[in-house]
């Protein structure tokens, strides 16, 4: 974009100037509609989410054997919901903002196998591909006990095939570890911002890690090129994959069951606000879709992004979606929140979900670090910086009366509200790395 084009965009969308200035902004979406009205634009349905849940169920016996840490959940990869009252108090003090309702944390950070939200979509897509190959080869039927896949016969079969993915870190971890365990030959194309320990861990699992000096967009593009020359190679496309999206969406129905067991009510008088850190958009978009299917118009989904990588806010706000990148505006896409260091949002997710997302906000890296240290201090829960992006959400929502009015949420409803901060990663961060994060927060 040249200067004139940027000026024109700013004239039409003044908020863009504040994004360029790297300000922390909050934007509530004036174009939201009911689930009924918005669903047709998603192009996916409850039936497909149910199929994804059923597929994960078929794989549960395999996962129990291949990853013993999943045994206590019977091979179902799911995370806890915990209340964080001390953090709620600390947030209110930090932002000088009463936070009505109760604040909870969804600990995808501690999902088994790969310790991030990517253990939902990434693993689901690998399993879907493996099942398809095995079914086509006549080695498997959907009624089998899938633990038969934990054998040399299957590993040998899968070793004829390869899988490739571009990643800032966590997607690579999920896809790499899962693919290697099944026996696939797997390459993870890593952007420059990916953490060293993640690369090391992948190599230990026998994954081919290809490093790039550039950002996520380049790593994905290179991965795609290499994969296209090999018909036996399956490229996992984080930007456009409906399979990934469905893997994430399964979270919605599962959360509904968890809330029922915990006697947490969600209805018109007890609204649910969910704060989701957003990178390319597949994870938060898929989860938001599942939440909408599960809770309808009583759930309000809000995406959080770093001030240096506000790609989804930019794409949805301007309607340009993947036709614009933050770099087009001179925003550098440099952030310590490695899962969120994405300059161009998924066009598929933006277009599918723009009517069903209530809001978007940005926060600085230093704020994520401060929140990281605060959570460690108040609740003794350790997360990686990206996973704290959602933590600023409850105060933003409570501060925006105009938004609450537009949603017909009065003080009574707000007092009954459940705020769910989606903690997207950090469960596997080495202790010394965590100590560095805490030190960074102090400086
Ligand atoms: C990937 C990731 C996200 C965001 O998911 P996207 O699908 O890229 O939007 C958020 N937090 C963490 C820790 C991640 O790894």
UniProtKB/TrEMBL annotation:
Entry-annotated residues carrying N6-(pyridoxal phosphate)lysine: 118
Q: EC number(s) per UniProt?
A: 4.3.1.18
Q: Which GO terms describe its molecular function?
A: D-serine ammonia-lyase activity
Q: What does the record give as the reaction this protein catalyses?
A: D-serine = pyruvate + NH4(+)
- Known cofactor(s): pyridoxal 5'-phosphate
Instruction: Show where the Tryptophan synthase beta chain-like PALP domain sits.
Output: 94-398
EC category name: lyase
List the Pfam families.
PALP
CDD domains reported in the protein's UniProt record? D-Ser-dehyd
Q: Which SUPFAM superfamilies match?
A: Tryptophan synthase beta subunit-like PLP-dependent enzymes
Going by the entry's taxonomy, the superkingdom of the source organism is recorded as Bacteria
Ordered alphabetically, the record's keywords are: Lyase, Pyridoxal phosphate
Q: Does the keyword Transport apply?
A: no
State the similarity comment: Belongs to the serine/threonine dehydratase family. DsdA subfamily.
How it assembles, according to the record, is: Monomer.
Please identify the protein, giving its name as recorded. Answer: D-serine dehydratase
Organism expressing this protein natively: Serratia aquatilis
Q: Which gene is transcribed and translated to give this protein?
A: dsdA
């Amino acid at each position: 974009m040249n200067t004139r084009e940027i000026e024109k965009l700013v004239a039409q969308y003044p908020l863009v100037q504040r994004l360029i200035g790297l300000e922390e902004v909050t934007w509530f979406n004036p174009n939201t509609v009911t689930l009924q009205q918005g669903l047709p634009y998603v192009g996916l349905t409850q039936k497909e989410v149910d199929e994804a849940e059923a597929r994960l169920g078929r794989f549960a016996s395999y996962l129990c054997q291949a990853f013993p840490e999943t045994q206590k959940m019977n091979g179902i990869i799911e995370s806890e919901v915990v209340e964080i009252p001390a953090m709620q108090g600390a947030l209110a003090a930090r932002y000088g903002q009463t936070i009505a309702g109760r604040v909870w944390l969804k600990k995808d950070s501690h999902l088994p196998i790969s310790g991030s939200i990517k253990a939902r979509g990434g693993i689901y897509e690998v399993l879907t591909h493996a099942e398809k190959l095995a079914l086509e080869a006549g080695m498997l039927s959907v009624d089998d006990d899938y633990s038969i896949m934990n054998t040399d016969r299957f590993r040998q079969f899968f070793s004829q095939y390869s899988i490739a993915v571009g990643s800032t870190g966590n997607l690579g971890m999920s896809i790499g570890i899962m693919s290697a365990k099944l026996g696939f030959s797997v390459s993870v194309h890593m952007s420059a911002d990916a953490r060293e320990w993640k690369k090391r861990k992948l190599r230990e699992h026998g994954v081919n890690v290809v490093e790039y000096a550039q950002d996520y967009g380049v790593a994905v593009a290179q991965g795609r090129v290499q994969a296209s020359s090999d018909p036996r190679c399956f490229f996992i496309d984080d930007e456009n994959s409906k399979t990934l999206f469905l893997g994430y969406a399964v979270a919605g129905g599962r959360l509904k069951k968890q809330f029922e067991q915990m006697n947490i009510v969600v209805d018109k008088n007890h609204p649910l606000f969910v704060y989701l850190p957003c990178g390319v958009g597949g994870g938060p978009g898929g989860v938001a879709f599942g939440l909408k299917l599960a809770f309808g118009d009583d759930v309000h989904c809000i995406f959080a992004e770093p001030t240096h990588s506000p790609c989804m806010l930019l794409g949805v706000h301007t309607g340009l979606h993947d036709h614009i990148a933050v770099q087009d505006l001179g925003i550098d896409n440099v952030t310590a929140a490695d899962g969120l260091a994405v300059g161009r949002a998924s066009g598929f997710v933006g277009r599918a979900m723009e009517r069903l997302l209530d809001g978007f906000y940005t926060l600085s890296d230093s704020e994520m670090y401060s929140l990281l240290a605060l959570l460690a201090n108040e609740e003794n829960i350790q997360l990686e910086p990206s996973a704290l992006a959602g933590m600023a959400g409850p105060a933003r929502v409570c501060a925006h009366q105009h938004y609450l009015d537009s949603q017909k949420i009065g003080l009574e409803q707000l007092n009954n509200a459940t705020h769910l901060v989606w903690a997207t990663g950090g469960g596997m961060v080495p202790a010394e790395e965590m100590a560095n994060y805490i030190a960074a927060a102090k400086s």
